[in-house]
Specification:
The structure is a single chain. The chain is built from six helices and ten strands. By secondary structure, it is an alpha+beta fold. It has a domain of 140 residues: Aminopeptidase. The protein binds coenzyme A (COA).
């Protein structure tokens, strides 16, 4: 599983993640994010439909060098084995059309996955596909027992992706989004619930 690194919580150890794999679904290739993706992100990401229910720490209006600046920090975290960042691409094209991120539980923050998709591709079941591939990797390869997941309560599409995976809402709390103050749903998806849901879908 990799080397142990500093952990803020007594009795727990954060593990350096294994190298990021490329994941494949029926319609998508999820490949490691790369520096060259910054221009596609700068084109796609600063859209209200994408940012409105993201954390208020996302700068808005989005600066013209926002993607490049964020990329530096992101690739550093990837290199240090702290988090995974995948570029979502359609099979047959290597162009980034969205992003999905995964990171381990730090003992405190009940949030372990993030995603966004080009609005032109939304509503086609693509994020469900991407989230399933990343979740399978977390449970089956990394052997994590659970994922904590979050979204703005108003963000029904994001909530729906979680519901469809078998996640259970366990809390709501105030949270600040780019669109203002709101309420955040916190979900728990256990490996067991995921397996049960998968079996029912097959
Ligand atoms: C959230 C997001 C990634 C979903 O991607 P997507 O590829 O469109 O999702 P899918 O097509 O796989 O599934 C969406 C589900 O939500 C449902 N949905 C979409 N909009 C909805 C709405 N307004 N109300 C209720 N359900 C809705 C869809 O019908 C689908 O459910 P179904 O399969 O039962 O019909 C996409 O909307 C997005 O990028 N949003 C902006 C960024 C964001 O909010 N990220 C999440 C932060 S927590």
């Amino acid at each position: 599983m990799g080397a142990l690194i500093d952990c803020p919580i007594e009795g727990m150890a954060l593990v350096q993640l294994p190298p990021i794999p490329t994941l494949e679904t029926r319609r998508l290739i999820l490949r490691p994010l790369e520096e060259r993706d910054a221009s596609a992100i700068q084109q796609l990401f600063p859209q209200w439909q994408i940012v409105r229910w993201l954390t208020a720490s996302v700068p808005w209006p989005y600066p013209s060098d926002g993607a490049t600046r964020n990329m530096g920090e992101t690739l550093e975290q990837l290199r240090r084995g702290e988090k995974y960042f995948w570029a979502i691409t359609l099979k047959g094209s290597d162009e980034l059309r969205g992003r999905i991120d995964l990171w381990p539980f730090d003992g405190q923050t009940r949030d372990m996955r993030g995603f966004w998709l080009d609005p032109k591709l939304q509503g086609l079941g693509l994020m469900t596909e991407a989230a399933n591939a990343v979740t399978a990797y977390a449970f089956e390869e990394l052997k994590w027992p659970f994922l904590y997941l979050t979204n703005a309560a108003a963000n029904r599409a994001s909530a729906r992706v979680k519901e469809k995976q078998g996640a259970v809402e366990i809390a709501r709390e105030p949270f600040s989004y780019v669109s203002g103050d709101g309420s955040r749903q916190i979900w728990l998806l256990t490996h067991e619930a995921w397996l049960t849901r998968k079996a029912a879908d097959e």
